[in-house]
Structures are given as C-alpha cells and as structure tokens.
Known about the structure:
The protein has helices spanning 15-21, 36-39, 58-63, 70-75, and strands at residues 4-7, 28-31, 43-48, 51-56. The chain is α+β, with helices and mostly antiparallel strands and 77 residues long.
Amino acid sequence: HVSIVFLSDELLSKVRDLATSLRGISVLTVAVAPEYVPEGAVLGFDLVEGRPKILVNLKQAEAQDVAFAAAFLKLAE
Length: 77
C-alpha cells in the first residue's frame, strides 16, 4: 500500500509537530516547498540554478519507515 501526506502552503510552522506525530508510521510526507524538508518532511523539490533537485530528509524517512532505492538516492540531495 502507499500512504502519502502532501504538505501544502502555510503548513511550515506545523511540519515539526507533524513529523513527530508520524514517527513509526509508514507514510511519505511530500513538501510543497524546500524549506519543509529540514523541518521534518521526508521529500521535497527545489530549483538550483534553474535545475530541479530532489531533497530527502533521510533521518525523518527512517523515523517514518520510508525506504528509498539506492538508485533514487543517487539523484537526491
């Protein structure tokens, strides 16, 4: 099964609390803004010098029982 929580605009102040409450639950949190990833979202996206970047918070991914293939992680930061 697939479980995803999409973190939309104006949730930045709540991301840390949400990340804490999702520990131990197998759910992927995907952020609308890159600032959400260091705050506790598992996955996010950014543009750096006009190039798309995939952002992964590995510590939070582990806490939420989310595993990524090594090939995917090579593409991420």
